[in-house]
Every structure is written in C-alpha cells, then in structure tokens.
Amino acid sequence: MEPVISLTKVTAELGSRPVLRGVDLAVHRGEVVALLGANGSGKSTAIRTIIGQVPLSGGSVEIFGTPRRRFRDWGRVGYVPQRTTAAGGVPATIREVVSSGRLSRTRFGILRRADREAVDRAIEAVGLADRAKDSVDALSGGQHQRVLIARALAADPELLIMDEPMAGVDIESQEILAATLREQVSAGASVLLVLHELGPLEPLIDRAVVLRDGCVVHDGPPPRAVGQHALPGHDHVHPHTAAEPVRTGLLS
Amino acid sequence: MMELLNSPFMQRALIAAVLVGITAPAVGIYLVQRRQALMGDGIGHVAMTGVGLGFLLSTSPVWMATLVSVLGAVTMELIRWYGKTRGDIALAMLFYGGMAGGVLFINLAPGGSTANLNSYLFGSLSTVSQSDVWAIGLLAAFVLAVTVGLRRQLFAVSQDEEFARVTGLPVRALNLLTAVTAAVTVTVAMRVVGLLLVSALMVVPVAAAQQLSRSFALTFAIAVAIGVTVTLSGTVVTYYEDVPPGAVIVLFTIAIFIILTGLATPLAKRRARARAAAPAEGECGLDVPAAAKPQAGEVTA
Fold first, then answer.
1. What percent of chain B has pLDDT over 90?
2. What residue numbers bound the domain in which A208 lies?
3. Taking the C-alpha atoms of A5, A85, A143 and A182 in order, what is their torsion angle to the nearest 10 degrees?
4. pLDDT > 90: what percent of chain A?
C-alpha cells in the first residue's frame, strides 16, 4: 500500500548542527503513528521537514506519493503546529481562526456555504460550538490547543500532522482531543503525531517511532509504560508542561 | 463651515485625509497582528531618501518616495527571511541610512534645504496639489484592494505563518505584498500626517479598536472609523490654526485610545465576573469530608 507520508534517509541541519541524521519513516493509510523521543531528539524537526518549514540537506520526503516540493494538494493535510496559543497581535474569534484552516479548500479565499459548514463542524468537533464568537484571548491553554486542532480539521483532511497536541492541556481538553482523534481515525484519517508520552492517546496508536539524536532507534509497537507510569490510575497528566521540562522516565 | 468646504485646497485636503484615515489602519492591523507594529516607522525613515531624491532629480517627491520605500520594505522583508541573526542591526542601518540619505539629497538639490523636508516629516495639507490627490487616490485604491480583497489570506499569514504555509498559501509572496502595501501606505499618508508620524496612524487606531472588540473583523471596522475621524478632525483644526496636521491627528488618536481604554476597563471586568460566575468553576472545596478533620481539642490533647 502506498504510504501517505514517506521519509527516506532524511538529513537536516539547524544552523550547522545536524538534527536529523538519516531518518526513515512511513505512515500508511489509516495508520496512527506516534513520533516519540526526548527533547532535542529531532521529533519536531522531522515534522517540519514534511511541511517544508525546515529544508532537507539530504534524502527525500513524499506526501501521498508526490515529492514534497511538487505537492500542492494541501487541502488533504491538516497541520497542528507546536504552539501554546492560537492568538495573534489583534483579537480574533474562534471562528475567524478556524476559518483560516479552510483556505486550502477555497478558491481566492472565498468561503462558500459548504466551507462555513465545515468550519462549524470542526468547532463542534472540539466542543467549542457555544464559544465560536468568543475571542481566542479569553481561552485556557487546553482550549487554545482545541482551536488549533479545529483549524486543522476545517479542511476535512485525510492526513493529520500534529506537533505535541497534548502539551500543556488540561484533563477535560485531553479527553475531548482523544475523542476527536478517535472519530477522525474511525472515519479513515491517517495521523502522524509528535508526543512526549503516549498518555490518553495510547489505545489509538498503531505504531511508535522513537528518535534519539536524529536517528530512528525504535519502529514498532508502542513502548510499554514502565515504573510509576504503568500503575493503574496514573493519568499521565502534566498540566504544567509548557513551563517546565517533563521527565517522564519513559524515554529519557 | 461652508466657507471651509468651498475652499478648493480644503477640498483636496479633506479627500486626502479621508483616504489616509482609511488606508493607514487597514494596513496597520496586519502589522500589529504579526507584531511588527514599528515597521511603518522604519519605512517612513527610508521614504525620506525618496523625497530627497525627488527634489534632487526634480521629479515628484510622492512617486519617488513610493519607489524608494517599496524597495526599502522589500529589503526589510528579505532581511527577515535570510538574515535571522542580527536582523535588528541590519534594520537599524536601513532606517538611519534612509534618513541620512534624505537629508543629504535634499541639501544637494538646487535651492534645497532641510526646511523643505519639514512638510514631509510632519504633514502639510496646504501644499497638497491636484496631482497629489490623484496619486494618493490611485495608491489608496491599491492599498484597499489588497487589505480588503485578500483579508482572509493576510489574516492567516499574519496569525500563523507556519500554518499558512501548510494551507498552500504563497506565504513569501503575501509577506512581500504586505511590505509593499505598507510602503505604499506610508507615501499615501506622507502629505497628511508626515513620515515621522505615519506609523502612529497605522498602529494606534488598531490598539484603540482592540479595547472594544473581540473579533478581527470588528477591530478592522472600528480602527478605520477611528482613522477617518481623527484625520478629518485634524484637517479641520489646521484650517483654523496654523499647526502641522500630523501632530494634531496623532494627539487626537492617542486621546481616543485613552478614552476607549477607560471605557473598556469596566466592561472587561464585568465580562470576567460573568465568566467566574459560570458553573463548574465555583468555590474550592476539599475532597475529604469536613468531619474527618481533626477537632481543635484533639490537636491540643
């Protein structure tokens, strides 16, 4: 089966520091792949080479079988950048921010009725329908993350690429995000997501790829939780991840 | 009042004022959104070289300033892409080089002196000619076509550049277009508010509008309304008092900002209180029932 994302011997540098040193990674249709690794292992850089934010110094990236440079069909891809806020320098409502996720499906940025309905569906999916007209400035960290995910869903993508969607997210939002993702997956979406730890998404994940120092060191079933993380009732919630580095003991 | 409207120079001045009042905040909102509020100020400095060149070469200072400030804005954008390290130093050189060039060229021009620069630095409505009005009208039409016609694209790019790239938007082209549009706006506003004060008219109405609004669309509308209000009233003041219009307009804008901030503070407090009163966010309580707490007597026992 043709992979929806395929990285072959990808190398990349940030400044003069090699960050990826020959990464091979494939995501197949309908698959949920978690990209794991400690801080600085190259997870985010790997994601950012896929979307073209970080240039490759070697190897190749294909999206839906097309080399990334020639790929134009961005409406099929939903992207959630690593970010703690959805706000910019000017107030904007949830609907305004989510609407920009629909631009990839429009011509000249004109939103038709079907587009507006897709935007409403995306806001509904993350449980913010009653707040669509509120400013994103008034939201909590977890709600910001839900807005960013709704923005990615607005294009009705077949492939979701998410960079740490659970960072700094409260329990309620984590559960909503897990449910949203479950729905997307059962509808046939493929997902590649960077995670610090598996957490509440664990049951959804088909395969885990672990990076260390820019190399793939594990590609297969998700690693089993060990130590206190394996105890029943341990909820994997680290609500202050945005402010302090988390040592989970799982991977570092 | 009628006398004011019958004067041909006042008619030209009022037309120019309205166009500037609309265009400056219309571009400024995107600069504020991408947190480059002072970009207009930088372009204003660079445009001084254009004005100086216009005098030196005896061509129209408005068109020459447009050309030079567009080049300057594109250079700034290129520095932002490629020279991430020490970009601020490169920008500083561009700003002050632009200002120095303006002063140099205008003094080299036959019969020119720094005094000629004054009307461009702080605005001078009495010198707005018929051809200036045409130039301003044409440039303002371009600015409006971009800022309103491409509002969704510019919103997306200014809100989150990385995400915009993944929606397939031509991010670099849109960034360049924003820079060029900002440069054109600076030269549109040059005769009314002046190069040194134009940035205030791009930024302060937007900041004032934010006090009242929760959405981008409404912020845009209020900012433009504020812009037109202050440029028109500033122009009328200069009819009665011989003062540079730029100074009056900027002070009016800041006054509106202060008034709106004063009005908005109780509003924001009320909203916060309404949110706090919402269910599920009530008072804190202990999970352990109160009866389990040790009694005061037991502690001492």
1. 40
2. 3-230
3. 10
4. 24
Domain that holds residue B164: 2-277
Size (chain B), residues = 301
For residue A133, the one-letter residue type is K
Provide ipTM, 2 decimals. Answer: 0.82
Domains: count for chain A: 1
Those residues whose C-beta lies under 8 Å from the C-beta of residue A1, and which sit 6 or more positions away, are: A28, A29
Residue B300 belongs to some domain of the structure: no
| Cβ <8 Å between B167 and A133 | no
Q: What tokens were used for B196? A: 């040194």
CB atoms within 10 A of CB A29: 14
Domain count, chain B: 1
Instruction: Report B:65-94 residues touching A (Cβ under 8 A).
Output: none
Does some domain include residue B50? yes
Chosen from A90, A107, A116 to mutate, greatest number of chain B CBs within 10 A: A90
d(CA A175, CA B168): 31
Residue pointed to by tokens 């910019």: A88
pLDDT in tens, A26-78: 999 989 999 998 888 888 899 989 988 888 888 899 999 899 888 888 889 99
Helix axes B61-82, B87-108, angle to 10 degrees: 160
Residue A236 domain-assigned? no
Q: What is the pTM of this model?
A: 0.84
